[in-house]
# Entry
Amino acid sequence: MKKLLRILFGCYVAAFFLQSCSVLHNPLKIKNYVEIETTAGNFVIGLYEGTPSHRDNFMQKSSSQLYNGALMYNAVRNGDYSFGLQRGFAEGDMLAADLASDRTLPAEFNEKILPLRGTVAMKRVEGAKNPQKMSDANLFFLVDGSKNLDIHEIKASVAIRNRDTYKIYIDKFLALPENKALKDSLGALRSMSTMKQYNELYATVMKKVKPQIENDGVELFSISEKNIDKYLERGGVPMFEDFYTVFGEIVVGMDILDKLSKVETDLNRTPKKEISIVSTNVLKKKDFKKKYK
# Structure
């Protein structure tokens, strides 16, 4: 009997190990799906196995129908479309309250999980109040982004993500007495709006401070060549990479992005005509295949 129990336990451990290796090798694997019916159209999200905390949270919220009646409250054409806000609430207030009340999820970043067009991610409080980049447990968004990204747009995204870090070091560098002439030159070029020359000189200063950034162990944002190819092929928002946790993708109803891109908004990017979630339904893989394949 003991021998049989040892064999069974060994089989269980082996099966668990193989399953864990499979997820590590392919974090994009999908076993669970959520159907979302909205007043603007329907779509189905496949949830990644590589982001288990976000997967389980979204399944729990969806199976409990907690999103029923929640609004699509923000629309950025060629950017993202935000969902999950209940009437009478503001995004900033809800994000702050959820962070303070620990209604958050740990960040689950993975180099293979990217904010490509059609993926889904959770919102979060940004900045120093949330250094661990914990996700809000309620508000989510669909990633749109340009369908036809080019390499210049991707490089611009990298530059924007690193802008604040460079500014800190450049300000310190220009504050040194020996660099006063360089600081004055930048100021003069900026005041005369000769931005081409200003940008060229600023780029030179960036090269001068980069060794110090590296010596201090500060990690600059970068995108691998492999991931650049993925953005060029599918589109998306590279600036969101390792910034928001992406936990799934639209597997049915990608045309919802085109529909939402045509929604008229006010100056706050709030849809002029109310769009809300009608219902959500969780499906296992076998049920998804029966219904959609």
Summary: The CA atoms of residues 99 and 136 lie 7 Å apart. The chain has two domains: 27-146+240-292, 151-215. Residues 13-18 have pLDDT under 50 and may be disordered. Residues 151-215 form one domain.
